[in-house]
Each structure stands twice: as structure tokens, then as C-alpha cells.
Write the C-alpha cells for this entry.
Amino acid sequence: RGWINGIVVGGSFLQGHKFEVGSSDDSSSGWYGFVMTWDGSKVLERFPSEFSVDGLIRVRYIEDNFYQASTKKFHEERKNWRTRTALRLLELSLPQGVRITVALGTNVGSWIMRFMDVFITMP
């Protein structure tokens, strides 16, 4: 499958620190298996929540209301996997004006599918 199931931001850009988002088959980890860490320690374990380190990173973990509403309206007559897809957003603000938005998606039905959509904005 061609799904994104993890993203890492780190190195000298974050002064040697690392922020990681990953998914696993362990649904007891985070929200449907999505886990966020800073230097290996879990962060953003509650929803909604925020995490920040002054001057390096600010992350907001929020509901993706736009996608939920538009998907429901567009697919209400056709019952496909998108109508059962729950989404949450991570909005990352990073040094030098870099922004990353990660849509965490999970489909819960007769099977579970996890995926990420990643949007990177740079000045």
C-alpha cells in the first residue's frame, strides 16, 4: 500500500531534538495506534492538546472539522470507507517559518486502516 504511516522532524534544524509521529498495529498506543514523541518520550497523549519547546516547536493536536464535514456531505449517499474515517490534525510550527500539517486518519469498520496526509509549508 502507498500510505504514509510515519513522519520524523529533527536534526540540527531542531538543535539535535526529534519529533516523531508514527502508527502501529497496537491500537492501545495513542489514538487508534498513532503515537507522538519528543526525543523518544510520548507527548500529546490527551486530546485535544498542545506541546511546545520555546523557539523550536509548537504542536497543536486538534479535530479536523473541515474534512469531517465536507466528507460527510459529499459521501452521505455513497456509503464508502470515507464516511467511516475519523481524522485528527497535528499542526506543527517550526523554526524559520516552516509549518507542517499532518492529518491522522483511521477507518474503523470490518478492517482498520491508518494513514497520514502531510502538508509542508515553507517561506
User: Anything to note?
Assistant: The first strand starts at residue 6 and ends at 10. The longest helix spans residues 65-75. The mean pLDDT is 84.
